[in-house]
Amino acid sequence: MEDVCSCQLAHLVAMRPDGSLIDIDGGHAPGSVPGAKGLVAVEADEELWKFICNSPHWRRPVLAVARTFVKPPLNTLSPTA
To answer: Are 2 and 47 in contact (CB under 8 A)?
Structure first.
């Protein structure tokens, strides 16, 4: 990934099939993540994930800890149709 530094990646969100976005604060309407105004959305493909995982600016998450604060926002979301 030429001309890209993983330090430029400020926030990660997941997109549901209906276009809604999910981050640590819960669900958001498509295209509206609070605090992300002016940031450019980049779809994370396999190449980008490899790049992130090998970057010195990112570390692998501790999944057991992450699950403790991800579950509450996910529980507030309605299932997709």
So the answer is: no
